[in-house]
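Summary for the lay section of the report: proteins are chains of building blocks that fold into shapes. Here we show the chain for Quinolinate synthase and then a coded description of the shape we predicted for it.
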Amino acid sequence: MLNKQDISDRILVQEHFAQEHLPSEMDQAEIDRYKARIKALLKEKDACLVAHYYTDAIVQEIAEETGGCISDSLEMARFGTIRPEQTLVVAGVKFMGETAKILNPEKRILMPTLEATCSLDIGCPIEEFSAFCDQHPDHEVVVYANTSAAVKARADWVVTSSIALKVAEHLEEQGKKIIWAPDKHLGEYVQKQTGIEMLMWDGSCIVHEEFKAKGILELKSVYPDAAVLVHPESPDAVVQIADAVGSTTQLIKAAAELPNETFIVATDRGIFYKMQQAAPGKTFIEAPTGGSGATCRSCAHCPWMAMNGLQNIVSALETGEGEVLVDEALITDARRPLQRMLDFSASLNK
Ligand code: SF4
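The coded shape description reads as follows.
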């Protein structure tokens, strides 16, 4: 059984901030120099910084300080289209840079690193996926945003976790059969919530798949008043014990709105930066990824998101390296389901 001492070194968001804000290889003076350089370069290059909630706090901080955006992949996609700057620096993973390019083909899209990818994207190669779709021509193809431009181009719809349920219900109302790819856990969640049967691709996120229901329940016994916040990329056993399930933006909202003072959070710990802003004074605890026999490949932080840092943001802006290029034919075909998602999302907010 866990006790407070056992877990004290992993729980406090303040500790997380201390680690994230002051990376061991940089002192505060160096961080300040990098930040000043990024601010100057963004102006000089007519650029803005778009960062995902899972990037390190220092990256989110500079996005915020320069009038950029920190958000989930849906909002990142939308934000890029409404900004006047001709260069977007996307701090996130490859599919986010590609999405920005598809929606803004006339703009220059830079990424701090082109190496940052996603296990869902890797696990859904276009050849196999296209062959799978060809076997079921009577199905509407719905793919998660966490896919390559080529997979999007093969799809009828793109979704993010924030509107996955609504899109599935919308297609069900139209009598459509659905292929769902690539995240089987998100798909299972949608199936359970809506009762809609879907043909599922067998992909998963290496970060969320590591969360363990048993470990969370043990943590709950130490913090009985804590609410459990879960991203639906997590396994069903973890979703089952959640007090709130949702996209990153929805989980931040839940942290602010629920009356609890303590939260066990089953998603990437990069989200703590915004959760702390939305719910100051509350305590956020990383959901356990270990447990006996478990292999922690991610430890609640995406290894690819962690590749974004101040140094490579400067380097991308200075050199223009890390530019995201997408084949023109793919842009045309992938834009259709992406735009459908944005239009659908806008119609929900009317
Ligand atoms: S956290 Fe998971 S879904 Fe998000 S980019 Fe990393 S591997 Fe992909």
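Put simply, here is one thing we learned. The first strand starts at residue 47 and ends at 52.
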